Amino acid sequence: MRQAQENDQVTIHYEGRLANGEVFESSSDTAPMTFRIGEQMILPSLERAIIGMSAGQTRTVSIPPDEGYGPRVAELEIAVSRDSFGDRDIKPGMVVTMNMERDGQTHNLPALVKEIEQEQVRVDFNHPLAGEELFYTITVKEVQPATEGEL
After folding, report:
1. Cα(122)–Cα(93) distance, rounded to whole angstroms?
2. Where along the chain do the CATH 3.10.50.40 domains lie?
3. Beta strands in the chain (DSSP E)
4. Distance separating the N- and C-terminal Cα atoms of the chain
5. For residue 151, what pLDDT is reported?
6. What is the pLDDT of residue 87?
7. pTM over 0.90
8. What residue spans in the chain does CATH classification 2.40.10.330 cover?
9. Residue 93 in contact with residue 112, Cβ under 8 Å?
């Protein structure tokens, strides 16, 4: 049976959990994921874990924050003027899109509304999984070698 290697197309079922057991994503909510190893469609550490696996095999891997979504950065949690939101009805826990200037360019970025005060809103631009150790259970469903045209 073929073992997955660089450039192979693989189809997997997966479940991602946090250290407390909370599931943050799962292919059972959508469908199996198909991708080519090396195209960086998933975290590189997950690609490395899949290399050497065959169809039918299951593996659980631990991904530390520095190989996942990075550490939490305190400076990415900031207070902005309530006026920045205009008449939008915002609540803590909502994800909003905000314009941020960096290096002379404007970027649309998602931010989590953490707290709303009279004149200010505290928002967090960290990825929701930043600082978390991630645990993925992966089951390989299919491994297809790359054709010469795909290499």
Report:
1. 11
2. 9-69+130-150
3. 9-18, 23-26, 33-36, 58-63, 77-81, 95-102, 105-116, 120-124, 134-144
4. 21
5. 59
6. 86
7. no
8. 74-124
9. yes
C-beta separation of 85 from 116 below 8 A:
no
Q: Is residue 139 within 8 Å of 14, Cβ to Cβ?
A: yes
> What pLDDT does residue 101 have?
79
Given this structure, which CATH class describes domain 74-124? mainly beta
Contacts of 81 (CB under 8 A, 6+ apart): 119, 120, 121
Residue labelled with tokens 């649309």: 108
Q: State in words which class domain 9-69+130-150 has.
A: alpha beta
Sheet holding 105-116, edge to edge: 77-81, 120-124, 105-116, 95-102
Q: How many Cα atoms sit within 13 Å of 118 on the Cβ side? A: 0
Residues 6+ apart with CB under 8 A from 82: 116, 117, 118, 119, 120, 121
pLDDT at 150: 64
| Mean pLDDT (10-residue bins), the chain, 151 residues | 94 97 92 94 94 97 95 94 89 90 85 93 94 97 84 59
